[in-house]
Design a protein that fits this description.
Layout: E1 4-7, H1 12-16, E2 21-25, H2 29-34, E3 35-37, E4 41-42, E5 59-63, H3 68-79, E6 83-87, E7 99-101
Parallel strand pairs: 1-6, 2-4, 2-5, 5-6
Antiparallel strand pairs: 3-7
Amino acid sequence: MFQLETISPKMLDYYVERRDSLIIDLRSKEEYAVSHIKNAISVPYETLDEEKPFPREKILVFYCDRGGASMLAAKKYRKLGYRVRSVIGGFLAYHGRNLVISG
C-alpha cells in the first residue's frame, strides 16, 4: 500500500505540469470558480463519494481551504491503493505562480 505524503503549498507548483498527477480541489464549486490552482479539477469534498474512480496511474494531489478535508480524502484514497498527496495549510497557504483568478 502507498504511504500518505504531505506536501507544502509551494510544492504544488511541482505537480501542476506533471502528466502523472491529478490535482483535486475539494472546495465548493463557487470557491473554485473564483480562484483555483492551474490544471486542478473541482470535486467538492461532499461529492467525493459520488465521483467516478480516479485514474490509478495518477498521483492524486488533494487540496482544500486549510488542509483538513484534503488530509481525510488522501487517507481514504490511500487505503484504496492510490498514490496520494495532501497539501498542508491548503489553498489559503498557497502563494505560487499557478494561481488562476476568475472575474
